[in-house]
Amino acid sequence: MKTGAYRRKKITNVVVHGCLALLSIIWVFPLIWVVLTSFRAGKGSYSKNFIPEEFTISNYTRLFTETGVFDFPQWFVNTFVVAIFSCLLGTFFIISIAYVMSRLRFPARKGMLNIALILGMFPGFMAMIAIYYIFKGIGMTEGVLKLVSLVLIYAGGSGILQFYVAKGFFDTIPKGLDEAAYIDGANKWEVFTRITIPLSKPIIVYTVLTSFIAPWTDFILAKVIIGSEAKYYTVAIGLWNMLEKENIYQWYTRFAAGAVCVSIPIAILYVLMQRCYSDALSGAVKG
Amino acid sequence: MAKKNKIRKEVTVQNAFRNGDIFTRLSFLVMGLGNLKNRQIVKGILFLLSEVIFIAYLCMGGIGLLRGLVTLGTSTGEEVFNEQKQVYEYTQGDNSMLFLFYGLLAVFAVVFFVILWVCSVRSAYTAQLMREKGKEIPTFKEDVKSLLNENIHKLLLSAPVACVFAFTILPLIFMALIAFTNFDRNHQPPGKLFHWVGLDNFAKLFESSSGLGYAFWHVLGWTIVWAVFATALNYILGIILAMVINREDTRCKSFWRFIFVLSIAVPQFVSLLIMRTMLQPEGAVNALLQQFGLIDSALPFWTNTTWARVTIIIVNLWVGIPFTMIQTTGILQNIPKELYEAAKVDGANAVIRFVKITLPYMLFVTTPYLITQFIGNINNFNVIYLLTKGAPASMEYHNGTAGKTDLLVTWLYKLTIDFKDYNYGAVISIAVFVLSAVFSLLAYRHTGAFKNEEGFQ
Predict the structure, then answer these.
(1) What is the spatial distance between Cα A245 and Cα A15, in angstroms, rounded to a whole number?
(2) Confidence (pTM)
(3) What number is the ipTM of this complex?
(4) CB–CB of B323/B262 below 8 Å?
(5) Nearest Cβ partner of B283 from A45, A50, A271?
(6) pLDDT tens across A88-101, in order?
(7) Phi, psi of B90 (to 5 degrees)
(8) Contact A126/B280, CB-based, under 8 Å?
(9) A121/B437 touch (CB, cutoff 8 Å), yes or no
(10) A199 has which bridge partners?
């Protein structure tokens, strides 16, 4: 009897691990495939073999040196600059709102929270099209101003309404800490900068990372604002363009190289962000 | 604190008019007068200045802009003969879009001014009350200093609120207004005018006999089918995956978790674009299957309607399952072990335990998450646009503006960006908003966080 149960358990374990292994292969398959493609010699999206016959790094070198048609390094710089600025501005906005809504009580507070909820229900896309026309109307979609517009919208657009995670974090900081500081004569600004912010490292890092990653992965807003001027592309639109019908044959392997170059840093940041998120969920002050 | 609230309650525009002295009452007409009288010089001058600027704005063109909002422009561009140069010249006509935009800005300016006016009246009345009660009236310097203390919310919120106004509220109202105009591909400024048409667009879009209405109801139907399947399958399979990984006997838990997290850490546009090329008729998957001799001709992943729809849902599983797994792992561990033990003793097998214990518990805890996901899927632009762009195209759908896998949001994108039918796009936006709002309301009424916000403080 005992051996029977033991054997059954063993069989279940083998089956479970087998299934997991199979699933893992399915999940990793596209990723490995793109890495292999990025080292493949030759052109086109079609390849007879899963493992390329000939390996080369020329896809990477050509991606960064042949900038006549598609200027990948320029896109990389564009995205990086946009990401840095929108991350600084966006983090400041989100942390400010979250702090105010969580710690302070003032007459308009409840109303503002409700308005934020309602605004969050509109399809983000709806505002996007109108923003494009408004920005076009006031001349913000010309030349380098496109990138400025992107920063403004990433930092100040609908992303701002995502302050609820940070607010939830601030809600967990005991109010007693603030009150003790007030008794010692601190004003609210000092409490905010000297007590709340130092205690909020996980949520600040989380916010910084989310708003830094957004411009790298966002596709639609950048496409609407930037249009067809290749000089101001971000990596997402640039890579998307490489796969358009007229480019795919020439550019497919270089697309794979570009995708690898973007994905590795973003994936690392993403994993870090997940860790901060779970730290943040477990609250500010432990014990 | 209580005393302060009392003053605040007492200070209303009504009371200011009823009980104010002559200066407070005059502040109704000349803003800042009451402050000036009570030696709040800078504050008074600022109020006065803003009134002057506002009146100047109205005289210099603000009224014209407001009128423009009603007419949306009257003159189209035309050719005029220039006597001096002896040539025909093209005059710039009115641009209805800019009329709408600047008119809307003018309305905002008026609203803003009214708010400022209320502030000034209340400020004058407050100053009067404080003087009557023999209190120190705060100087401008003290007012500024208070921004770091009791008024810190005004300091911290001003920039974000301004941004929300500029980048969310203003565009949303602008777009909502367009839904009531005939701003379509035949009325493109500059050169042509569009005007207000009331509810015509709504009628056209919701009437199922017109080509547009036919497309709308079918796209809406697919949107809901997609959202239900995408949400439900991701949710259930994600939970099962999380449970399998967290089983006591599963080895290398963090390794498995890492593998699945990896796939969502890669930017979505990369993984989806790869999927798209892999599933092309001549893509890697078809090539491999043909090489193994499993199929004779390429499978129509993106070209056949049913295949495309099912493929999208399956590819979305690849994206969504790991996500659910991360979100639910923690909650699953909170399910009391005794429940499972008791069920086992009663002879329930794994499937029954999942359906009777795990699912009800998870549904109870994660309903808000589920509904957010559902709304996210209704608005899931990325997956559809990057995988199929809405293809296969269908001529039945409003002359091919929408394809068989288009969601409302991707159709909206095509209508506005590719076909320039802004009015219909706007109506669809409003429809999507109503759809999301209904589900959001359901979600928020369920969350404890909403009901009892301060429970943990």
Answers:
(1) 43
(2) 0.83
(3) 0.85
(4) no
(5) A45
(6) 999 999 999 999 99
(7) -95, 120
(8) no
(9) yes
(10) none
